[in-house]
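pls design
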């Protein structure tokens, strides 16, 4: 019988698990970024209880912020599996997936009560199952709304109370279960409450891939296809083709780059019927189509410090 999940919880998983492998390696970021993420998660999950009560106690919060398609969710899920493997000799890890959009309510005070139940009852109960617990929230701006910009059209009093409940809930969860880590993503960090962001032990800003990374994403996507259709191995190893395709995909996010490679399989009926017929022309045609669809998004990659996570 399937487990009935609490309100707002969309999944509960025991890690490490082989079927969760893949995301950590799929996101192409500097090794230093992954090292910081893994080290921060390990510190909280392994030593959080020992540090509790000290001035340097971690809040148990990692924030991944950046535009859609830049690998935040994939990186977060990959981190859960990676840290679970590190901790496996000391016990299993529970991964809890929660939906921030499930908590806002039109009923006065209900958002606050729902958030309070999540942090005060649901998460502590789930965290009691195993030695380590990681909670993943995508689009946390729906939950920890920036109170200064709360719209007066949507009951700002309730927005304030709900955000207050998130902050107090985060603090109480840290006190009750110091070995618990929240990993959250946001497409709009400017919409997240400043007090929430200030509690982050680590904030990683993701951005569009630089010109040196786009060919690597193309190559990695082709290797995934070659794993299914061995006849594509030569194409997956052709660096000149990777660079030519990448040139047309410059300025796109990692998700769109990967989708463009997969879309090449549907450029011709013959290739759709037999993917091993995929050729350079198909890839270039799909890349040009993706670039044309992206329009203004093909301009610039932004500052260097916003290019931490680079594939989708």
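designed seq:
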């Amino acid at each position: 019988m399937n487990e009935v999940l609490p309100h707002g919880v969309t999944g509960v998983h025991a890690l490490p698990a082989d079927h969760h492998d893949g995301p950590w390696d799929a996101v192409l970021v500097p090794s230093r970024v992954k090292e910081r993420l893994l080290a921060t998660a390990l510190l909280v999950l392994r030593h959080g209880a020992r540090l509790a009560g000290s001035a340097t106690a971690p809040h148990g919060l990692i924030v991944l912020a950046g535009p859609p398609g830049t690998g935040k969710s994939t990186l977060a899920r990959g981190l859960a599996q990676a840290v679970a493997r590190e901790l496996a000799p000391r016990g299993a890890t529970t991964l809890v997936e929660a939906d921030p959009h499930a908590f806002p309510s039109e009923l006065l005070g209900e958002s606050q009560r729902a958030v309070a139940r999540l942090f005060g009852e649901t998460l502590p109960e789930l965290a009691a199952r195993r030695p380590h617990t990681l909670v993943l929230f995508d689009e946390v701006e729906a939950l920890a709304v920036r109170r200064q910009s709360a719209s007066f059209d949507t009951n700002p009093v309730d927005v304030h109370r709900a955000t207050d409940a998130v902050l107090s809930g985060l603090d109480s969860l840290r006190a009750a279960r110091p070995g618990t880590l929240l990993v959250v993503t946001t497409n709009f960090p400017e919409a997240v409450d400043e007090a929430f962001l200030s509690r982050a032990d680590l904030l990683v800003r993701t951005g569009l891939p630089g010109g040196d990374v786009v060919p690597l994403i193309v190559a990695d996507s082709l290797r995934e296809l070659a794993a299914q259709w061995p006849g594509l191995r030569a194409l997956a190893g052709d660096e000149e083709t990777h660079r030519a395709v990448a040139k047309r995909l410059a300025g796109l996010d990692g998700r769109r780059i990967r989708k463009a490679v997969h879309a090449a399989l549907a450029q011709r009926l013959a290739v759709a019927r037999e993917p091993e017929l995929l050729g350079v022309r198909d890839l270039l045609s799909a890349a040009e189509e993706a670039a044309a669809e992206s329009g203004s998004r093909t301009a610039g990659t932004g500052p260097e410090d916003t290019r931490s996570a680079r594939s989708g």
